[in-house]
Every structure is written in C-alpha cells, then in structure tokens.
Write a structure and sequence with these properties.
The protein is α+β, with helices and mostly antiparallel strands. It has one domain. Helix content is about 25%, strand content about 20%. It has eleven helices and eleven strands. The strands form three sheets. Strands 7, 8, 9, 10 and 11 form a five-stranded antiparallel β-sheet that branches. A four-stranded antiparallel β-sheet has the order 4-5-3-6. The protein has a two-stranded antiparallel sheet with strand order 1-2. Helix 3 runs antiparallel to helix 5. The chain is globular, with a radius of gyration of 23 Å. It comes from Streptomyces pluripotens.
Amino acid sequence: MPDQSPQESRTPGSALRGPVAGSGEGLSRRTLLGTAGATGIVLGSAGGAIGYAAAPAPPTPLTSIGSERAMFHGKHQSGITEGLQARGHIAAFDLVAGAGRKEATALLRRWSTTAERLMAGEAAAHDDTDVARDAGPSSLTITFGFGHSFFQRTGLEKQRPTALDPLPDFSSDHLDKARSDGDLWVQIGANDPLVAFHALRAVQKDAGGTAHLRWQMNGFNRTPGATAHPMTARNLMGQIDGTGNPKPIDPDFDRRIFVPAPGEPAWMANGSYAVVRRIRMLLDDWEKLSPSVQEQVIGRRKDDGAPLSGGGEATPMDLQKTDSTGAYVVPLNAHARITRPDQSGGAAMLRRPFSYHDGFDADGTPDAGLLFICWQADPLRGFVPVQRKLDRGDALSTFIRHEASGLFAVPGGPAKGEYVGQRLLEG
C-alpha cells in the first residue's frame, strides 16, 4: 500500500452545492420530497410531545452532505480527484457471448444517461427503485473504464493502449482470478450509503442482457465532517494513510495522473489508468504489535502521521537521520521510506481507496482491508515500479495479502451530448 492518499477534505471545484430552499433556484422532485418529508416528521414528533399540532413550516434545505454534487460532464471523469467518499462500490462486468461493439455502445449510452441523472440527484430514466428518493446527490460519482479483454471482444484491438498490458506478477500476489480483471469496470462513490447502493443497482439493471457481473466489492471511508477539522484518513490498521499523495495544486499533477492531449491513443486524452487491488490486512497479527513497533513498520507516528525523523505530518522525511546507536530513525524497510517518489524513480500515483470488511472467517479472523485504487497516466511509471520495490523488502508485506487485481483504461470525461467512451467506440 504505497504511502499516498487524498485528503478527506474536498478539492476546490470538485463538487457543487445543490440549490437550497428560498434561493430562487429550482428544487428537483427528489430534493423537494426529501426536505419537506424530513421537516414534517421532526415537527410532528415535537408537537405530539407537548400536546398540540405544529403549524406547517417551509421546507428546509438539504444538509451540506446531501446537497453536494459532482459533475458528469467535464475534462475528466468524476471519481478521480474528488475527496474520499463515505461509501463505495466497485464492480467488473464481462460482455455476454455474442455481444460486441454495437451492444457495448448501447450499454455505455445507457450507463452514461443513468450516471448523469443520478449524479444530479434525479431518478433513473426507467424503472427507478426509489431507494434514494429522499436524498440529494450526496457527492455521487460514477466512473467507467475498459479492461484489456474488452478490446478483443469488440474488435478494437488496434485501439488498445500499450499501457493496458497486463500487470507483471508480484511476490505478494495471492490473486483470485474470479475477482480480478474484467471487460468493463465501474466505480461508484457517495456520501450516503443508500445513494451509492441505488447507483449500483441501476448500473447492474442497465447491463441487462449485454453484460453480466464478474465481481463486485463494497467499501467505506470516514464520513466527511466526522472529525473536528479536515484531516488525512486512517485505514483499518489505525494509521494515517496518504500523507504523500500528489495534489491537484502540484505543478506536475496533470502530467503524472492524466494522459495528455492528443493522447496515446487519441481516445484516451485526459483519461487515466486505474489499478485496483483488494488488499487483505492481517489484522490479528498487526494488532499484536505494540504501537512503537507498528510505527517502525510504517515509518510514521501513529497519532499524527508525522515521520519518525521528526516534525509534523507534512514535514519532509529525513531519510539520513540516525539515533544514538547510529541506526536510521526511519528503518530501511519502513513502508513510508520505500514508497517515497524520490526512492522509486519519481513514480507517483493518486490513491483514492476504500476500506472494506466482508465479515469473519470460520476461526474468527476478520476479512478486512483496503480496496486499493490508484490513478496514473502510465501504470508502468506509476504503480509498477513502486510495487516492485515493495516486493523487495517492505516491512508491511508481512501483514497484508494482495487477493485480487485489475487494470483499467478510464477515458476522459464526456462533453455535453456525449457518452463515456464515445471517442473509442465511434472513432
């Protein structure tokens, strides 16, 4: 798990507030029902408690969590640079036998229509389940990508990027092929669990007879606003995870994360590559370690994420600092040392993960860990060199296991009137 992850706070411009009552802007049917219904329940309860019926009150606006909205159209697809979301689902689909480019085109049209409506806080165009009727957009993002196998299935082999070549084998891999790869990949995130599930169900229903579900995983993060101030998230090991993540304000951010225009191939301009790994944390073993030993494994203090060499969370790590015995303060095999970009040939990737917990094994061992998702302009210069270095001696490797993997080409965002992947499928 390279030491990179976005801040829990939202990046500027990553979401727009929805309309509030009395602002003069129109409310969607879902927003109106949600706010008015919530107000009626609260007032009715209060009135009954003191013996009189409360007078009707004007609708109150959605809370900030419910009203925040990510945009479907744009230079990049949503779900990449936005802050961490409270709930996430990732899934891969395979085209059914006999389905090809024509059927895939129709499916991406359906998925894009559904994504645009749901991200705006509207109901699906057909057969909406009403699961999220009372909610606002809740920062919903729906992101689509193509796997290596998609191009052969659709006769588009000449358009397959070389960057989508299969990842090499790593010594830490214990991969379940049934939960890896896939023709099509979908990432869903929201700050309300019902909104996220509603989107997952809509995407699955839209797949219809064109594609069947290959695998699906569920994740979560801390809800935005749960801490006294914005801070880097913690993972299930209790560590602050992601201090070194590249930030959109960095001058080289776009170059490292997004494929430049005109793109190679052209349809990938402004797109990115997502590496997806299901990393199980061996929590029973990890939690037997003392906090000080855990800090030695990671190379950072557990309480505030500061490097063991001193300072605060954002203080650059001093890799040459030694203690009174001459030993490095940050051990040579510490996870944070190995994953630093300057220790991996400048390799950088934008981590945007979700934690997961899928219950317990028969012996009580928790099946929990990280749905690792990282974004980069080229996996051979991002994920691969870092993971190869981790393979050669990361202290954390004893406490994690890579159980599933996938690599997907995620095209740039659609312009108004376009659907996701149109430049590939109709180019």
